[in-house]
Design a protein that fits this description.
It is built from 15 helices and twelve strands. The longest helix has 20 residues, at about 265-285. The radius of gyration is 22 Å and the shape is globular. The chain has about 400 residues and is of the alpha/beta class. The chain starts with 13 loop residues before the first helix and ends with a helix. Strands 1-7-6-5-4-2-3 form a seven-stranded mixed beta sheet, with helices on both faces. A five-stranded mixed beta sheet has the order 8-9-12-11-10. The structure holds pyridoxal-5'-phosphate.
Length: about 400
């Protein structure tokens, strides 16, 4: 394998990184990124095999340890997030679990937001706690309350900004300061913004993770995840768990994700532009109590969103008047928006979180974190904006 000529990563802008970074090349001189679908790698001799097994990381041996196509995806993600390294996982949840398992032990303390992806909360409360790791869930985004929850000492802080589906913002720089004062590492789930709109590591986060399943694939095809951060944490702490635990990303999925990244900057910009326009439109319609969109002036953290993000992103949350029956009538009348639980796809999607993605939480918890029966999450894709606006109008008329 030879690598084609590559400019120094630091000199490249995101759109160029997205289409060029980390490209492996075989002796066949292909231009597009090859898919190295192989579980193991041949050795030239018994001595070569012995050498690769003794020098950890000097060459590919077996795809649970490393694979050139997976490395392509990792390189693109690390450069886009502005971190030294990145490591891929089989899904977003595998990335979150890898962070916790690698960085915590019995007696550790994790402080996490209540406003998290449903499966993340379930993982922390039902599984991580079984291993004698203390999990403290904080209801508020106020860094002072996080400091109190840490009680002077913690191992890991975990937040998602903006959170899905309420689009609650967290001040990443302020939270990083509080985390570090307590001796904790801050992990930020950057799924909703993607590195195109927000680079948490530049704001002080220690690790940044993604579900590649969302905007990074962008076309709803495969599951995948990634953790970005300094080599010391990625190689020193997380890699040993992935090699032995096994939740590594398949080369095929890595190839899909790496190719998805090529259009990520353009998709995220266009999707954000259309989402902002639709948010503005929906906010004024009858049948809508209020909306949440980070870059809409009605958002409680509008100033923070303008400072922390380069645009508002592709999710628009609508609170329709009339609770669940009205939300269901709205969703059932839609003809363009797909009814599915994913987001970040080029196909626009409508979801009712209270009865689907967040149905396992108790009603009391859902109410506390703002996932009310009237909440509908719209994930804006690349459908024609006029068709989306007409569809929303159709939905609201049905309420
Ligand atoms: C989807 C999602 C995850 C989990 O990712 P999977 O790839 O489905 O495992 C984690 N965090 C957020 C914010 C998500 O939206």
């Amino acid at each position: 394998m030879s690598t084609p000529k590559q400019p120094a990563p630091n000199s490249l802008r995101p759109q160029t990184i997205a289409v060029r970074a980390g490209q492996p090349a075989s002796s066949l001189r292909e231009h597009a990124e090859a898919l190295m679908l192989t579980s193991s790698f041949r050795f030239d001799s018994a001595e070569h095999a012995a050498q690769l097994f003794s020098e950890d990381g000097s060459g590919d041996v077996y795809s649970r340890y490393s694979n050139p196509t997976v490395r392509l995806f990792e390189t693109r993600m690390a450069q886009l997030e502005g971190t030294e390294r990145a490591i891929a996982t089989a899904s977003g949840m595998a990335a979150i679990f890898a962070c916790i398992v690698s960085l915590c032990a019995a007696g550790s303390k994790v402080v996490a937001a209540r406003q998290l992806f449903g499966a993340t909360l379930g993982l922390l409360e039902n599984i991580v706690r079984k291993f004698a790791v203390e999990v403290v869930i904080v209801d508020s985004a106020d860094p002072q309350e996080w400091a109190q929850a840490a009680g002077g000492k913690a191992d890991l802080f975990f937040c998602e900004s903006p959170s899905n589906p309420q689009l609650q913002l967290f001040d990443i720089a302020a939270l990083a300061e509080v985390a570090h004062a307590a001796g904790a590492l801050l992990v930020v789930d950057n799924c909703v913004c993607t590195p195109i709109l927000q680079q948490p590591a530049a704001l002080g986060a220690d690790l940044v993770m993604h579900s590649g399943t969302k905007y990074i694939d962008g076309q709803g095809r495969v599951l995948g995840g990634v953790i970005c951060g300094p080599a010391e944490l990625i190689e020193g702490r997380i890699l040993p768990y992935l090699r032995s635990g096994g939740p590594t990303l398949s080369a095929f999925n890595a190839w899909i994700l790496a190719k998805g990244i090529e259009t990520l900057p353009l998709r995220v910009k266009e999707i954000s532009r259309v989402a902002a326009e639709l948010a503005e439109f929906v906010a004024t319609q009858t049948g809508v109590e209020y909306i949440r969109y980070p870059w809409h002036p009605s958002h409680p953290d509008y100033a923070l969103a303008q400072r922390q993000q380069k645009a508002g992103g592709g999710l628009v949350t609508i609170y329709v008047a009339g609770g669940q029956p009205a939300a269901f009538r709205f969703i059932n009348a839609l003809q363009v928006f797909s009814l599915t639980a994913n987001f970040g796809d080029v196909k626009s999607i409508a979801t009712h979180p209270a009865t689907t993605t967040h149905s396992r939480l108790s009603e009391e918890v859902r109410t506390r974190i703002g996932i009310t029966p009237g909440l509908v999450r719209l994930s804006i894709g690349l459908d024609d904006p006029a068709d989306l606006q007409a569809d929303i109008t159709r939905g609201l008329a049905a309420i």
